[in-house]
Amino acid sequence: MAEKALTAVVQEAYVHNGSTRSVDNRVQAMEMSGISKSHVSRLCGEIDDKAKAFLDRPIDAAGRIC
Predict the structure, then answer these.
(1) Where are the alpha helices (DSSP H) in 1-66?
(2) For residues 12 and 15, what is the distance between their CA atoms, to the nearest angstrom?
(3) Bigger pLDDT: 22 or 2?
(4) Rounded-to-integer distance, Cα 40 and Cα 7, Å
(5) Is the distance from CB of 55 to CB of 38 less than 8 angstroms?
(6) What was the pLDDT predicted at 17?
(7) What is the mean pLDDT of the chain?
(8) What pLDDT shows up at residue 43?
(9) How many C-beta neighbours within 10 Å does residue 7 have?
(10) Cα-Cα-Cα-Cα dihedral of 45, 40, 8, 32, to 10°?
(11) Which residue from 44, 48, 5 is spatially nearest to 24, judged by alpha carbons?
(12) Its function (predicted)?
């Protein structure tokens, strides 16, 4: 459960701030330990992948998702 909460905090911070460095700074400011910079980057990369998939989804001429 704690891992899910930490993931949510990291990903929400990334969505609002837009950089892994700012997320890392926020995690450190919250005195959370046990998360590496590479883990922060991986979690933020997951958001980028999901956003890209959403933007690249096929849409027909009427604007409906195919």
Answers:
(1) 2-17, 20-29, 37-55
(2) 5
(3) 22
(4) 9
(5) no
(6) 76
(7) 80
(8) 84
(9) 14
(10) 180
(11) 44
(12) Required for the transposition of the insertion element.
